[in-house]
Task: structure prediction
Amino acid sequence: MSARESVAARWIRAALAVFLKDWRSELRTRYAMSALVMFVVTTISIILFSLGGEGASPEVLAGMLWVVIFFAAMSGLSRTFVMEEERGTGMTLQLMTPSGAVFAGKLLFNLALGAGLTLLTVVLYALFINGFVVRTLSIFLVTIALGSIGLAAASTIIAAIIARANTKGTLYPVLSFPILLPLLMTVINATRLAADGAPFSEAAGEFQVLISYIVVVITVSTMLFDYIWKD
Amino acid sequence: MILRVLLGILLTLVIVAALGLPIVQQPQHWYEFPSIPGLEEKARIIFFHVPTAWLSVVAFLTSMVFGIRYLRRKDPEDDLTSASAAGLGLLFCVLATVTGAVWAKFNWGSFWNWDPRETSIFVLLLIYGAYFSLRSAVEVEEKRATLSSVYSILAAVTVPFFIFIMPRIMTGLHPGAAGDPDGAGPVIEFKMSPNMRVVFFSSLISFTLLFIWLLSLRVRTARLEYHLQSKG
Amino acid sequence: MALQLSTHKLGKSFNRRIVFRDVDAHVGEGETLMIAGRNGAGKSTLVKILCGVLSPSQGRVVVEGTGKLNEFDRKGLFGLVAPYLQVYDEFSAMENLMLAASLRGERGDRSVYAGLLTRVVLEPNRADPVHGFSSGMKQRLKYALALAHHPRILILDEPMANLDADGMAIVRTIMREQRSRGILVVATNDPADIDAHEQKVNLNERS
Result:
């Protein structure tokens, strides 16, 4: 028998184990990552073609950036739960690990994946889309940080819900959109402020909304996850 | 039985009053409504549009409350009530959106403008749509009930954020919205004449009672269907 | 007090179809509970409820003799081998064992697991990804995973599935050992699968 550690230490180990399992599995199979990269590249290419060399106003470009990020998230962030369901390993996890640790681990995974896809999109967007200028960099950086966290948080709990349903693919954006809309509206607005060169303090309201959104979504998700996960 | 009849009479009175009572420049009698510049006859829609919008929110909250009850007690009847309320809510939401669009066309020139209140009712419509898509995608009843309850709770906690976000993003066309210059429309609490307020609140109350009655009908029907299917 | 696993008026229905009702079973330390029934009678459903991965529609499962347990230890009481229990086949046998330990909140011990894999004749394959395993090898890996944390209640659903004669002999030894230190529950169609049982639940008569 191993030495008895505190429950908290075991919990953290279990949550990290879930995260690392997903991470290592992803590195070996690369399903989600390649899908995401292909999606972002394809979508930005389509945008470039449809703009046809003309620009669009900074406001429109700010909105489109988050459209790409949203749909990229929809194509990749459900995998962490859907994969367990499709392979039948959900029961294995249920047998061994407390549900809270499962949620924490998968949330961590989606945070990492979400950060990656946001970064990739922003970089490609900045490089290739003419007319996308950010005058207040500080606002922009905080926005994409908070935005990707909020996106991952909401996407994870919804992914857990749709993993138990049929027609998972089309259901995911349908369920996610109303929940994510407050976040999307706020980050688009903040991105516009950054594009316009507004002072940092003007975006303070947006950041407050984003932070409270993140706190509320994570808190409520933690309370509700048990009902979704357990049969 | 008698309650149904009373409700029917009340609703009839409300509808007759809303549609029939004359709107004149200088009301002399108790049954005359003041004419508001810019609105005149179009003001009548307030007796129907606002209650349907109000009910679509009430129905959603009802659905969520019974969803929470289901999560606690796992009683299938709570889920039946939750789904029935959501169904009514969807109906009223569609009505609210349509009556709102009609008003918008006559008042402001186009059917849709992404004014904050219009956007909110649209989001509510999306939530109802998502709720029913989810329900139709789960076959096991217990799971269907659990997942829809969870989703309605999730939707309910994110909706309040709109209240903070909307004013920052857009000014509104709606009466009572931020940036509304005086005289653009009747702000309910302050600008309706007393007799209009009577009809308005009667409409609100009678539509709410209608909702409660329809809900109880739907729940009773659903309960019967449930038991029939169990025996078969 | 000795370890005891019991069910009180346990029932389960799906979509209003009753799978089974009023199941009262108990099994004590050192004993074997046999769950019998035709295919589709609900053996696997009962197994899942006993392990705690499925909740009953009525009644409850009670474990006595353990004192107050935190969630990890409560889950650690059970070990399960079943056709529907999947392993992570992109990882190797050893990685699966180490993963299972961390998921249970523990630090895995590679040397101990090497011994365990030797016991189920998988030691040469310890670093091979499981997706290349034969069905017999996967079944043996499931036994290793079920035993790694020394469960006091071992539940086997179709214990001999996919195993050849050598594999079956290993399982019989495992079953005998479990009887001497805890509770064994076996769900099977074939009574020849187990040597002896003290308790029995027959699901054929219950729905």
The first helix of chain B runs from residue 2 to 20.
